[in-house]
Amino acid sequence: MNMDEQKASDPLSEEGAGSGPAAGDSNTSAAGVNTADAAAEVAGVDTANADGEPTRLYSGIQPTGDIHIGNYLGAVANWAKLIPRYDCIYCVVDYHAITIEYDPDTMRDAILDTATMGMACGLDPDHCTFFVQSHVSETMELAWIFSTCTAIGALERMTQFKDKAAQHKQNINAGLFTYPVLQAADILGVKADGVPVGDDQSQHLELTREIARRFNHLYGPVFPDAKTLYSPAPRIMGLDGQGKMSKSQGNYIAMKDRSDTVRKKLSTAYTDPNRLRRSDPGNPDICNIFTLHKSFSSPDEVATIDAECRSAGIGCVDCKKKLGASMETAMTPIQDKYEDLTRRPDDVRDALAAGADRVRTLTSETMTEVRQSLGLR
Ligand code: TRP
Q1: SS3 category, 166
Q2: For ligand 1, is residue 292 a contact (CB within 6 Å)?
Q3: Residue 197 CB–ligand 1 contact under 6 Å
């Protein structure tokens, strides 16, 4: 681990405050920043290896409904691909899910179901750490401490908060507001230095880095600078063509949908809106069905469909049938695996418990450092 910590002088802090011992054999160098606000500019501890490449990744998914093909292509499939290259920690973020109204009677099953589908999609607990957020209480302790390093103004600027507050006017609770603080604690509690997410999370990750820098500036170099690793997958639009595919909009194909359901959903799905008649040439560049072909069909088939759509050689009905076949090929093994796992839920629970044990150990180590740095113990 190569830790390069940069530290600024803070005119508002006491001389020497925050100059606690660096963890491990870190080097401390100075960066001349001299306004209180600029604390956020101070670079954090970098746990990345020599080329700046992250070593430990963290990401989370909410147990708020079926994992759908948008979640799969945009997040989970990518997380699975990263497992051989990094120390990957993935989480079912149930404490985040309770910030919006939910049904306690179905939550326990929803958490297990999200974990089961995650495993079926390749988050193999033998090769990564997979756990449930609420099983590690140390993270919540860190979230409290981080809330004291977070400006209210920064939280007020979060677009996800503004969107959710507008959607849930009857329940604009403080947890919805401090949601990104808990997200920072998730990531930094295990000192992850890479976070694979979609671009909708970039603002939250910017805040995570700000919190780490603020903490390091005030109390000493404890936390790394967590890089955002954007998913290479395109944003998958909803079947209704009204914005991105989302659990709450009901415009999705679930990973557990078997091929007859998939075909039925595809048959009414939105395509290139300008292609009204079978004889009209289409534009695959603006067709969500084509985007899905790129994710599920072979490169040869994608090239053929691209050409035939433009020349009106193939109609939307046939194009969707081909997509249905490609999706069946890709999704059936995952669904079989999912069904196998649902028959042995105790194995899933045991794997999640082992994952939580590891994360608890890592976060406890961080908390020991944190309490010392804060001057509490
Ligand atoms: N906020 C993320 C989302 O809505 C979920 C999440 C919670 C997360 N904690 C995280 C993602 C930590 C990455 C890292 O998708």
Answers
A1: helix
A2: no
A3: yes
